[in-house]
Every structure is written in structure tokens, then in C-alpha cells.
Amino acid sequence: MSMFIVIGNYGDETIAVMQWIKQQGLAPVTVVSIDTGWAAPCWQTRVAAGEAFAKRCGFTPVRLQAKLNFADLVRERQHFPNQKYQWCPGFLKGLPLLQWLDDVDPSCEATIVLSKRRAASRAQANLPEYIAESEHHGQRRVWHPLYDIDNAARDALVTAAKFPLLHHRSLECDPCIHNSDADFLRMEPHSIAKIKSLETEVGEPMFVPANYAGAKGIVAVIEYIKQRQTKLNSSDNYQELFDKGCGSPFGCGQ
Q1: What is the Cα–Cα distance from 136 to 248, expressed in whole angstroms?
Q2: What does the pLDDT average to over 75-93?
Q3: Which CATH fold would you assign to the domain 4-170+235-250?
Q4: Is the alpha carbon torsion for 231, 232, 236, 241 positive or negative?
């Protein structure tokens, strides 16, 4: 029997697709998340809750570990990824995921399930329900079962799963090169300290100063955003930037 493999990080989108699959009674289901070594401290609690939910649904949760974490990769390459050169998902997620898929599904019979939706991103306005052979997943079939549902229906699925709605990206990487203003203002002191230390070690800022009125370094960027008096608004289009880059096939932000 071929299996369904959900790839996600237990954000709103992942929880929604898990609840939908539960309601359909599909089986067997494996839910795969990847530890990048760069998560917000609070995110471990969310992952643990997501894995417990997977077990209650009768699914098998699997947590993969990147061979090198985000900080290791930055040290090795001596520079940070950015929105133009998004090398992080391929190394942190693509490589461990493909290796695991080849181990558990050598005949490529599994169906990869992603929680992408047309309503979540203009970049996915023409998202198909199926991709017959995905080059990013070893030519396996990819299914987007929630492709045509709106944000309200997504929220209803999350609520049915008895999870609090986040209305922001998953925090498996924090900070992320796709940080919004709200993401910067939400950052925990530990996350700020680790990026400040890595910036000093590498000798360059993670975020391009030109994008923040010349603010150089994580502390300066956050101060600049505070001075703009940005409101901590929730947003339902946080997937927009992810869907334009190489993190899209691996569930970044979901």
C-alpha cells in the first residue's frame, strides 16, 4: 500500500492539512518535519504538540535532522543566504528529506502532501491539485489537497484540530531571510542574541542594510523597525515570499 507523506513544520497550514486528512480517513500517513537547528526556542513546544496530534490522528510523525544546521552552513560558506540567493532550504531540508524518502520509499510510490493553497499566495494563484512527477521530490507524485480552500476554511480546520491560530509563518527558522516586520518584533531575546553572535563571527549582517535604511546588524534592524512604529499585524499572505523561492517545495514557513 502506498503511503501519504505530509511535509510541514506544524504551522497553521500543516495543522490544517493534517486535520483534513484525518477527516477523510486516509492511511497510512507519515508527517515529516525537519530540525534545522535554527528554530525559535518556543517552536519546540509547537513541534511536540504537532507530533502528539499526529499520533492521535493515527499518523506517524518523523523528525529529520539536517546534517549541518543553519549556523554551521553560514560558517562553512562565510556568508548568509538572502532573498536573492536562497541556498538554505536545499541544504537544510532538501538533502535530508530526499535521503529519507529514498530510504523509506525506494520505488517512489508514496504521495507527497503539501499544504499549499491558492488563497495563501498570489504566486500560487494557479496551483494545481496534483503534480504527477515532482523534480524536487525524486519524481514522486505531489498532492495539494487544500489547493482551493480560502483562509476561513483553513482557520476552521486548525480550530477543529484544537490548535491556536498563529496567523504567522512557522518558526522552524528564526530569524528567516523572509522575516516580515512583525516577525522581527516577535523575535525572542535568545534568537536575537544568536544571530548577533553569528553576524560578528562571520563579519557580515544577515539582513541587507539597504533594505532597512542602512541599518546594519540584527539589533539595528529591529530598532529601525521599532522606530517606524510598525504594528504587529497578523497576515494571511506570509507564504508569498516563500512561494517565490527555493523553500517552496519543502514547506518552508508552513
Answers
A1: 10
A2: 90
A3: Rossmann fold (3.40.50)
A4: positive
